[in-house]
Amino acid sequence: MMENMDDAIQINDLTKTFGTATILNGLDFNIPKGKITSILGFSGAGKSTLLKHILGLLQPTSGQIVVLGKDLATLSPVQLREFRRSFGMLFQYAALFDSKTAFGNVAFPLREFTNLDETQIEKRVSDLLLSVGIKEEAFHRLPSELSGGMRKRVGLARALALSPQIMLYDEPTTGLDPITTKMVNDLIVETHNKNRGMTSIIISHDIKATLEISDFIAFLDRGSIVEYLPVSEFKKSTNPIVQEFLNL
Amino acid sequence: MNVANLGRRYTEKLGAVIINAIDGLGSVSYFGSKFFYWFMKPPFRLKLFMEQMYFIGNKSLFIICLSGAFTGMVMAYQVYFGFKLISVDSLVGPVVSITLARELGPVLTGLIVAGRAGAAMAAQIGTMKVTEQVDALEVMGIDSFQYLAVPRIIAGTLSLPMLSSLFCLVGNVGSFIVGTRALMIDEAVYLSKLGEFMFMEDMTQGVIKAFVFGFVVAVIGTYFGFSVSKGAEGVGRGTNLAVVWGMISVLILDYFLTSFLVHIL
């Protein structure tokens, strides 16, 4: 495992069990600050459970998670809720609020958590939507009136609204056509490059897409990290499970 | 299969049903108790509350007025033909009015709101749950219970007494029209008997019941919304359960509230 880096997230001996099932089994790895790290694995490997632990939505059975220098176990529910504002998250299907327009979705966190007036919010939302490639005529469309790719863009703009330090992408390219997949990948890299210092974490099982855009890849199998390497080394991994995944 | 095995199997099934029922009751009670913690905590989302008041209250006006009017009119007929046999047909007004105020107003309004708004609450929140919109709120640092459940529960609790009162008012008007125009009861007699036998306690009992039914129906609607899993099928099941349990709760609670309130009012 890699160490001695400026880490955004430290996961120490993390174990999670639900009843008799062990979902995460003694995970021990660090996610470096300012880089794109992908967590790969087959379905049911524990990726989403790990993500929920990083966000503090689930409590570990044992072990420790330190995010941006804060041990999540020491935070009260209120502190934890406030701390989550350091994260932005792009959900698999964007998870836009279907009662709000594209504009309303992006404005939502700004209205909830900032003291900006409506003029400032309007400017910030317009800038964000334009920066992810949404044209002005689509600003006031409901999510049901947007294509899958546009919904992802709006979801990304919403996630970036509060300038998060850590950006999480949950299966960002799963189920998308090749052109939209490329668009989403480009958007992730562009977003990462535009926001210097931001740590990006991608949860995925799309090996091709993650190899193209990641700096580091961790491979999760049955609740354990079986490989965690910089992308160039990951491609040469001799681990049989990783090899099987790479050759799919 | 021998009788002993059959007996054991049914006992086990009955035991499982009882355990599930207690477990469910505990979960709903815990869910409802969270309301008392969260509704006092800022931020107070007035806009969301007003939207829910509009949806539960304003959008129910037509069905409440329709049900109230016909309930009052039908009751006037039924009571009249019963009372006429013993020559007390002049008491149609107070009997209809007291029945509406104490029982039919809050109970029928509770059942209507459980069917209309309780189902909508479960479907809205359930859909948000399966499309990860609830997770999106949590990730942003917003408590989904406070954001989604609290405004609905407050709106339900406050709307139902108003709707129930309207139900009673329209029901009384319907009864008055049928009583005085179709059944030829003298208007002055109808109104004087109403004033003679109808008391404030009758109204108070109905309003208290309506408050409780509003709270319970909204808690159950939101609870089944948050309990949804497994996609569209789960939303359908959650909505169905919200309506069924909302209505059952109104009917069962009505008995206990009545037996309690008749002693204190």
Using brief descriptors, characterize the structure shown.
heterodimer; A: 248 residues; alpha/beta; Rossmann fold; 6-stranded mixed beta sheet; 4-stranded antiparallel beta sheet; 36% helix; globular; B: 265 residues; mainly alpha; 2 domains; 9 helices
Can you describe what's shown?
The complex is a heterodimer of chains A (248) and B (265). Chain A has a single domain (7-235), classed as P-loop containing nucleotide triphosphate hydrolases (Rossmann fold), CATH 3.40.50. Helix content of chain A is 36%, strand content 27%. Chain A has nine helices and ten strands. Chain A is globular and about 50 Å long. With 265 residues, chain B is mainly α. In chain B, 86% of the residues lie in helices and 0% in strands.
User: What is the total domain count of chain B?
Assistant: 2
Largest interface: A-B, 20 and 14 residues
At CATH level 2, the architecture of chain A is 3-Layer(aba) Sandwich
Query: Spans of chain A of 5+ residues with little confidence (pLDDT < 50)?
Result: none
User: How many distinct folded domains of chain A?
Assistant: 1
Structural class based on helices, strands and sheet pairing of chain A: alpha/beta
Classify the helix fraction of chain B into a percent range.
over 70%
Largest sheet of chain A: 6 strands, mixed
Largest sheet of chain A, order of strands side by side?
6-7-8-3-9-10
Bin the strand percentage of chain A.
Answer: 25-35%
Mean pLDDT value of chain A: 89
Distance between the termini of chain B: 56 Å
What general outline of chain B do the C-alpha atoms trace? globular
Topology pattern of chain A, helix = H, strand = E: EEEHEEHEHHHEHEHEEHH
Number of helices of chain A: 9
